[in-house]
Structure formats: structure tokens, C-alpha cells
Amino acid sequence: MAAADTPPAPDAAERCNQAFTEFYAARNPDKVYPSEFLVRTLMGEYPQLKLDRTGYRGKAILDIGFGDGRSFPLLDDLGFQIHGIEVTEPICALTRERMQRMGIAAELRVGRNAAIPYPDASFDFLLASASCYYVDPGLRFDDNLAEFARVLRPGGVFVLTLPAMDSFVFRDGIDIGGGHVQIQADPYGLRNGYVLRRFKDEAEIREAFSSQFGQFAFGHVDSNYYGTQFALWLVVCRRGDLASIADEPRVTL
Ligand SMILES: C[S@@+](CC[C@H](N)C(=O)[O-])C[C@H]1O[C@@H](n2cnc3c(N)ncnc32)[C@H](O)[C@@H]1O
Question: 147 CB under 6 A from ligand 1?
Fold first, then answer.
């Protein structure tokens, strides 16, 4: 990989929006099912993570980049008030219709990582499954983080995944500095030209997040699904500065 001299073209985001819009329109299932990551994180018990399942009911959650809405059936079963943002109205409309068919209430709006159309401190939980590290042209991952911190109430819980260095999507990508990579060879053809942020270890994640988030719990997945390498960090943390929220071994509600 080489350092890039020129920033990504401004229309890279528009192309990525269009590619995802076409992707979801082409595979429009009647039902959707949550990822293993989300089931384990919200329902499992692990040494460094304990989320109180009785604390979910009635809480407002924002699913950032909800895609086909696959997380919503679980969030609904757990009693969350569901909100979500996606990058285009056609993606919102498709998922809105699917949720109506499935009998799931969800308020879905067009928005982006660095531009979330909600007031400050609107949510008790944020969820970003494979989405929060999409960085728009001219911005940095820190701009996304500042926006996430703005809409999450102090003490609120952020559940997210981040890509590790050797995730499939970074093959032949151009390193543009600070962990940001311009994608060149996305096998799904969705993100070429667009910038994603990747992370090499937990220390790097802590460093990036710790001015606004604390009480971290980390997991890591490194799986090969029939030729595609999924390498990602799993993170649960809370909104707050390190002075007010001690970095305890367990995240509790
Ligand atoms: C890999 S998909 C993950 C979808 C879903 N969260 C899941 O777990 O299946 C990434 C999603 O992020 C959305 N996305 C792309 N750029 C974004 C941005 N700048 N802000 C928020 N979401 C974005 C895409 O439209 C896409 O639905």
C-alpha cells in the first residue's frame, strides 16, 4: 500500500450510496435475521461484558446504517424503541415496508455517521454493526465519533463493530493516514473509492474513543466464511469522560 497524495473524490460517497441502494433493492427478502454478533452481545454473558437484559425494555436505540433491518427483530423482541438511519431514502423505504410486514415499529430516517438528524442526547443506546467506520470525503473518523457522542445520552451504551487490519475489504486499498484506507478492490463492488477506518488493536480503539467514551469491553472475530476473511473488533462502551466513568471490567446498565 502507498500513501495517497490526493484525497478521495467528493462523489465517492454518492457512488457508495448508490451501490448500497442497488444492493438492497436487488435482494429484498420478506424476513431478516440478526447477526451472531448482536445476539451474543445483547443476550450472552461473557467475562468482560454483562449487559443487564432487563434494562432494554423501553430504551431508545439508534441503529446506524441499519441496511436491510436485520437487527430490528431482535431489538423489537428485547423491547427497544427502534430508530435507524441509512444513507438514502430508498433504503429506508424498503426496510420500512419490510418492518411493517413483520409487525415491527421503527422510525427510520436518512442520515450519515457524521450527520445524524436527531437532537443531542436522544438515545440510550447506539448500535453500529459494520457501519460506523464509513468516513465521508473531507472528514475523519473523529468527526463520526463526535456525532455519535452528541446523540447518545451521558452514560448511554454504544455497541459496535470495527474492522481489523486484514479484513477482506482492505485488499489493495490505499492508506491515506491515521488508519484511513481508500478502498480499491471490494469484492462486493460497493465501496471502491470510499474511505473506511480500520484498527490494529484494542489500544488504538481506546485512544480514538477515550475522549468521549469509557468502560470498554472488547471482543475479536477472525473468521473465514468460504473464502472471505472477516476480521473485526467488537466493542461495547459508554458515553462519558474517563474522569466520570471508571474503566471497570464489566459494562453494566
Ligand atoms: C456492511 S453494511 C452493514 C449493514 C447492517 N448494519 C448489518 O449489520 O448488516 C454497511 C451499511 O452502512 C451504510 N453506510 C454507508 N456509508 C455510511 C455512512 N457514511 N454513514 C452511515 N451509514 C453508512 C450502508 O448503506 C450499509 O447499509
Answer: no
Task: For the full predicted model, state whether its pTM sits above 0.85.
Answer: yes
- The full set of domain ranges for the chain reads 12-239
Which residue minimizes the CA distance to atom 24 of ligand 1? 65
Beta strands in the chain (DSSP E): 60-64, 81-86, 106-110, 123-128, 134-135, 152-163, 174-177, 180-182, 195-197, 213-225, 228-239
Whether CATH 3.90.330.10 fits 12-239: no
Per-residue pLDDT tens for 24-62? 999 999 999 999 999 999 999 999 997 888 899 999 999
Mutate to test the pocket of ligand 1, among 22, 40, 87, 118 (most ligand atoms within 8 A of CB): 87
